[in-house]
Design brief:
Helices cover about 35% and strands about 15% of the residues. α4 crosses α5 (about 170-190) and α9 (about 280-290) packs parallel to α10. It has about 450 residues and is of the alpha/beta class. The strands form six sheets. It has a six-stranded parallel beta sheet with strand order 1-4-8-9-10-11, with helices on one face. One of its GO terms (molecular function) is hydrolase activity, hydrolyzing O-glycosyl compounds.
């Protein structure tokens, strides 16, 4: 979320009143915001804005007391900050003096157009760049940051000049791998500097998530997300596409992926309007409760969008599905280990487990598996209260509806399932240890 210290504390209080399990506040606007033609955008100068986040250290300390981490945002670009009133450092100018920015064909810093402003890109092929940027990350961690979105990485211009002298078209695909590598190396170096329990405790680890990548990105990246969907029901760039991206990326080696709950891109022009409806937000919560990461985003135009904190309905729904997400944490840990050993994604297309069932090959965003034990048939259409579930051929056990307990034993059958808001069509393998543990955890959280 965004908004500054007071906004965070206000929303945190609302979350506590709804008993929402929170592991982290991701404060994207920690660097401060400015208004541009596309909405509220960040100052790309990677230091805390002490005006927007006054009392930063106390906020971090108070959240930590409740075992809540603080996450922030950065990317490999730097914006000139001459007009930013309260900056302490001008990282763009520092990088320019160090000569570690990507150059244009005239040997000058290549100013890349990014939506409403121009930025310089770090030349990740320069040997001094990683050293310098790791110092930036160290300063983030020193003020209490324990995770961040390592954004972008996909925008290296095709006519850029690099320190390495390599063809920029070839380097374009290598750039996000280098960006991931720098972040991962810092995480590992920081961990190696810890001692005793702190070094081994996963609760004390750092984490970052990315969107851009290439062949070796899963080697370096810790988590991925799918970029900026429209706040819509569309198949080409809305909630449906987030499922397509989730499953296809899983087949491509990206085992840990997720999307912004509610989507990101809103449009509020006189002729074209895309605004996040409450129904879309609620359904996206239901969907993402069964992905690797359950994380919201206010979007590029927060005031146009329904948010998890908008009203009692959205808060209650958010609390409900945060608890659903927490209820299969035990299985998520198991699936993460399996991914590291075998490369299988957390969220899977059905044909990975039912390769002989030709019907599953025609399924796209319609349904997916979490591991092998949970079957999710999300509601992805406006106003719909039923979904059509397909139960694949080749399963020894029945599928059990988690809300009603009804067993579905007919393999190779399509069945319409009631799926009102708050009760998405989700099934577990009847009698399985995973299924029984998941249901027990839901009962213990008063979800069932």
């Amino acid at each position: 979320m965004q908004g500054g210290t007071d906004a965070v504390r206000r929303v945190w209080e609302a979350l506590r009143s709804h008993k929402v399990p929170v592991s982290a506040f991701w404060l994207q606007d920690w660097v401060g915001q400015r208004e541009t033609i596309i909405g509220s955008q960040l100052w790309w100068n990677w230091e805390v804005d002490t005006t927007r986040y006054s009392g930063w250290q106390q906020l971090v300390k108070d959240l930590s007391t409740h075992h809540i981490k603080v996450m922030t945002y950065c990317n490999p670009c730097l914006a000139p900050t001459d007009k930013k009133p309260n900056r302490r450092r001008n990282l763009f100018e520092e990088a320019k003096k160090l000569d570690i920015l990507v150059k244009d064909q005239h040997g000058e810093p290549y100013m890349v157009a990014n939506t409403a402003f121009d930025v310089g890109m770090l030349d990740l092929t320069h040997p001094d760049t990683a050293i310098w940027f790791k110092q930036i990350l160290q300063e983030m961690v020193d003020i209490g940051v324990r995770g961040w979105m390592a954004d972008f990485g996909e925008g290296l211009p095709m006519d850029a000049t690099l320190y390495s002298g390599e063809d920029p078209i070839t380097a374009h695909n290598r750039y996000p791998e280098l960006w991931a590598q720098i972040n991962r190396e810092f995480v590992e170096e920081w961990k190696s500097s810890r001692v005793g329990k702190e070094k081994e405790d996963p609760e004390e680890a750092l984490v970052f998530f990315m969107r851009a990548g290439f062949r070796e990105s899963p080697k370096w990246g810790m988590l991925f997300w799918e970029g900026d969907q429209m706040v819509s029901w569309q198949a080409n760039d809305g909630i449906k596409s987030s499922v397509v991206g989730l499953l296809s990326s899983g087949l491509s080696g990206y085992a840990f992926n997720h999307s912004d709950i509610g989507g990101y891109c809103a449009v509020n022009l006189p002729v074209i309007k895309y605004r996040r409806s409450e129904e879309l937000l609620l359904r996206w919560m239901e969907l993402n409760a069964f992905t690797s990461v359950f994380r919201t985003h206010e979007g590029n135009k927060p005031s146009c969008n329904s948010q998890f904190y908008s009203n009692q309905q959205t808060l209650s729904h958010f609390a409900r599905f945060a608890k659903v997400y927490k209820a299969w944490k035990f299985y998520r840990i198991q699936l993460v280990k399996e991914a590291s050993q075998r490369g299988l994604p957390v969220c899977r297309h059905l044909f990975l487990h039912y390769p002989d069932d030709e019907r599953v090959q025609s399924l796209s965003y319609h349904q997916f598996l979490v591991g092998s034990e949970i079957l999710v048939v999300p509601t992805l259409d406006k106003g719909k209260k039923k979904v059509r579930a397909y139960f694949p051929v080749g399963e020894a056990s029945s599928w059990q509806h988690i809300w009603t307990g009804e067993l579905f034993t007919r393999q190779g059958s399509d069945i319409w399932i009631e799926a009102p808001i708050g009760y998405p069509a989700v099934f577990v393998k009847a009698g399985s240890i995973v299924g029984e543990t998941f249901l027990k955890n839901l009962r213990n959280s008063d979800i069932l």
